[in-house]
Amino acid sequence: MGWFRDWRRARILKHASLDADLWESVVLRYEFMAVLDAEEQRRLKELTLLVLHEKSVHGAAGTVVTDEMRLAIAAQAAILVLNLGIDYYRGWVEVIVYPDEFVAKYDYMDEDGVMHHVEAPMSGESWQGGPVLLSWADAEEAGRGRKYNVVVHEFAHKLDMANGTANGFPPLHADMDRGAWAAAFTAAYDDFCKRIDEEELAIDEYAAEDPAEFFAVVSETFFEAPFEVRTLYPAVYEQLRLFYRQDPAARIERADAAFREGRAA
Ligand SMILES: [Zn+2]
Questions:
Q1: Which of 56, 180, 197, 224 is most buried when burial is the number of CB atoms within 10 A of its CB?
Q2: In Å, how far are 142, 143, 195, 207, 232 from 200, measured between CA atoms?
């Protein structure tokens, strides 16, 4: 059915369009999307339209989801798969937006076989084969040159889940080396967990939670503050560059050079 899906998507793109003013005010206020070149912007718009068409965004607990919110979420979902394609988000359709942190209730069994009931405030959550949950108050913190981006974080979990449970090992491309991925991430994760108790690092401490969170948090930083990842864990940066097929640090360097040239001219 691949041809049918492609045909339908081509039709959607032919008939849909995004409001240029809305794009500029909503999407380009995120620094990491504003630095995309014209060709990347064009493809980001196409993918954003497909995300908007194929996923539904609902409000919960009284949240009214505006066009701006819907667009901001869809564009940030789209940038992760800019060079991967929207099929990486197969198998689920729903994004649920809460006004603020929401309470997740779940049970889990520890190593001693004891069941625990947990009620924890969450800024975001991704369910295997199910929805992405987001706190809008937290989502709004993103894109201001900080390393925190709950939207990118949750969609990174979705990519990790594309080949089963989230474990920090998303489906790698045929030209990637699984051993190199494992070596880079294991060494970085061990180093991070050792150092984070003692010192402030450029990557959020939540990354120490487990390898799945490490991948999601490092993905946030990869897009929001790529130089931090490149400096702290160059081997991880390289693996993320190969996986996302994007080089956000090089993109910023290019945009800066173009800006300086423009000013000099
Ligand atoms: Zn997470």
A1: 224
A2: 20, 21, 8, 13, 12
Q: pLDDT per residue over 88-123, tens digit each? A: 999 999 999 999 888 878 788 888 888 888 788 888
How far away, in angstroms, is 9 Cα from ligand 1 center? 30
pTM metric for this prediction = 0.91
How far apart are the CA of 121 and the centre of ligand 1, in A?
A: 13
Give the Å distance between the CA of 49 and the centre of ligand 1: 25
| Cα-to-centroid distance, 150 and ligand 1 (Å) | 8
Q: pLDDT tens digits for 63-97? A: 999 999 999 999 999 999 999 999 999 999 999 99
pLDDT in tens, 162-194: 999 999 999 999 999 999 999 999 999 999 999
Distance 123 CA to ligand 1 centre (A): 9
Residues with CB under 5 A from ligand 1 (ion): 213, 216
Q: What's the gap in Å between 213 CA and the centre of ligand 1?
A: 5
